[in-house]
């Protein structure tokens, strides 16, 4: 048990099992896991600080909150409510995810040898050079623009969606992989 | 109570993403380049496992799970959005969730991903009012599932087949694919920690 918690990298089988348990437990206890909505909520929280009155109480909406922005007013004002009351399930969930990544990294056994000799591509991906920063910035922009348009991301559509056998999850996964694979091959090549 | 569960489930998910290597862009890019299928195997196994567990629970009607389901609608924007996300994913090696976990794990590039992501989501928030009547929101199937879930809000595409059998059948299919896909460990390990490498792939036999 202890060594599992300290390992730098789990085997694929343990990784898969733990991913499956995480997604199943979330549905059983609360609701399917989703992440990308919280980027829009974070934006809204910042925007509401800069421009007070973006989110207001609105009795016509189911949530009791509304916004002058069409998107934040969607879904009975549920996004507006999350912005007005930031200490909600979705936002706390992603903060706990960040903490989970932090603790996993801190607990990692020190001095564990690297499994592979680093390649050109891994050196590039791990660098903070301008090319890497440009790609990670544009990548983040496209990923979240796409996730908001689709109404979910890799977690919400692909994992949570497909586990419920939802049509949208399968369509999303097919579209995402159909573009991500040629993109990665084009930018990083087939070799080292 | 909800907040306590958010902390518990979020922590478990973040911890798992970090330990599985999903928050490492090198692993993601190597998966997409067919060099290291560790993550594909893990993802397929995870979906299959969760699917079987879910449809067994749904079948026996325990814990009121059917009411917790949340099936997203299928419309053209799901495919267009999937294309955009795929492009960003293959470029950065992060997706929205793993970027946050990478940030927690101390990857400095994840901050840049977060900044780009916040701007991308903000642009969508601004343009939504203009595009919401467009073809991007034409339905291509609505909130449907393949297997019967028992939640009437989500119609099944195969209502004549038992949800237990179809759900578990697809789940078993995912797990079988995950088991049979090769791991494709590539470069020879210098430390000798993992030796499951190339001999049988290259078929090279040293002479003498």
- Total number of strands of chain A: 2
Order of helices and strands of chain B: HHHEHHHEHH
Name the strands of the widest sheet of chain A in spatial order: 1-2
**Main β sheet profile of chain A:** 2 strands, antiparallel
Cα gyration radius of chain A (Å): 20 Å
Average pLDDT across residues of chain A? 92
Q: How many structural domains in the coordinates of chain B? A: 1
Q: What is the SS-derived class of chain B?
A: mainly alpha
Number of helices of chain A: 9
Output the radius of gyration of chain B: 21 Å
The helix fraction of chain A, in percent, is 55-70%
Instruction: Give unreliable regions of chain B as ranges.
Output: 188-208
Give me the strand/helix succession of chain A.
HHHEEHHHHHH
Looking at the structure, what is the overall shape of chain B?
globular
Task: Describe what is shown at a glance.
Chain A is mainly alpha-helical and 192 residues long. Chain A contains nine helices and two strands.
Characterization of this structure:
The complex is a heterodimer of chains A (192) and B (208). Chain A has helices spanning 2-6, 12-29, 37-50, 74-84, 89-106, 120-126, 130-150, 154-163, 167-188; strands at 55-57, 65-67. Chain A has 192 residues and is mainly α. Chain A starts with a helix and ends with a helix. The model of chain A has no long low-confidence stretch (mean pLDDT 92). With 208 residues, chain B is mostly helical. Chain B is built from 8 helices and 2 strands; from the N terminus they run αααβαααβαα. At the A-B interface, helix 2, helix 3, helix 5, helix 6 and helix 7 of A face helix 1, helix 2, helix 3, strand 1 and helix 4 of B.
Main attributes of the structure:
heterodimer, A: 192 residues, mainly alpha, 9 helices, B: 208 residues, two-stranded antiparallel sheet, 8 helices
Topology:
The complex is a heterodimer of chains A (192) and B (208).
Chain A: H1 2-6, H2 12-29, H3 37-50, E1 55-57, E2 65-67, H4 74-84, H5 89-106, H6 120-126, H7 130-150, H8 154-163, H9 167-188
Antiparallel strand pairs in A: 1-2
Helix pairs in contact in A: 3-4, 8-9
Chain B: H1 2-20, H2 25-32, H3 38-60, E1 74-75, H4 76-92, H5 96-104, H6 109-131, E2 139-142, H7 163-180, H8 199-202
Antiparallel strand pairs in B: 1-2
Helix pairs in contact in B: 1-5, 2-4, 3-7, 5-6
């Amino acid at each position: 048990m202890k060594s599992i918690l300290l390992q730098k990298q789990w085997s694929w089988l343990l990784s898969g099992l733990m991913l499956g348990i995480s997604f199943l437990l979330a549905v059983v206890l609360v609701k399917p896991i989703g992440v990308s909505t919280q980027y829009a909520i974070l934006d809204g929280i910042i925007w509401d600080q800069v421009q007070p009155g973006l989110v207001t109480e609105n009795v016509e909406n189911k949530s009791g909150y509304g916004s002058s922005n069409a998107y934040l007013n969607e879904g009975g004002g549920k996004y507006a409510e999350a912005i007005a009351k930031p200490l909600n399930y979705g936002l706390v969930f992603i903060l706990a995810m960040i903490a989970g990544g932090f603790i996993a990294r801190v607990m990692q056994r020190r001095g564990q040898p690297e499994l592979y000799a680093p390649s050109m591509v891994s050196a590039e991906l791990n660098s903070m050079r301008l090319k890497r920063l440009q790609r990670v910035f544009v990548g983040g922009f496209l990923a979240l623009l796409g996730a908001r348009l689709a109404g979910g991301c890799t977690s919400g559509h692909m994992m949570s969606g497909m586990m419920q056998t939802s049509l949208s999850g399968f369509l999303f996964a097919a579209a995402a992989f159909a573009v991500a694979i040629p993109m990665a091959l084009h930018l990083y090549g087939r070799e080292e | 109570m909800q907040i306590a569960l958010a902390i518990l489930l979020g922590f478990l998910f973040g911890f798992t993403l970090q330990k599985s290597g999903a928050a490492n862009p090198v692993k993601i890019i190597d998966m997409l380049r067919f060099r290291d299928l560790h993550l594909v195997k893990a993802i397929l196994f995870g979906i299959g496992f969760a699917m079987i567990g879910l449809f067994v629970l749904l079948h026996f009607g325990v814990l009121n799970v059917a009411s917790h389901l949340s099936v997203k609608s299928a419309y053209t924007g799901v495919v267009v959005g999937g294309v955009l996300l795929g492009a960003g994913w293959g470029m950065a090696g992060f997706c929205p969730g793993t970027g946050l976990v990478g940030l927690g794990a101390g990857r400095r590039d994840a901050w840049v991903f977060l900044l780009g992501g916040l701007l991308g989501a903000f642009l969508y928030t601004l343009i939504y009012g203009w595009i919401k009547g467009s073809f991007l929101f034409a339905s291509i199937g609505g909130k449907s599932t393949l297997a019967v879930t028992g939640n009437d809000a989500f119609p099944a595409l195969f209502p004549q087949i038992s949800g237990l059998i179809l759900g578990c059948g697809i789940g078993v299919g995912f797990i079988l694919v995950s088991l049979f896909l090769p791991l494709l460990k590539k470069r020879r390990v210098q430390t000798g920690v993992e030796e499951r490498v190339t001999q049988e792939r290259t078929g090279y036999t040293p002479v003498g």
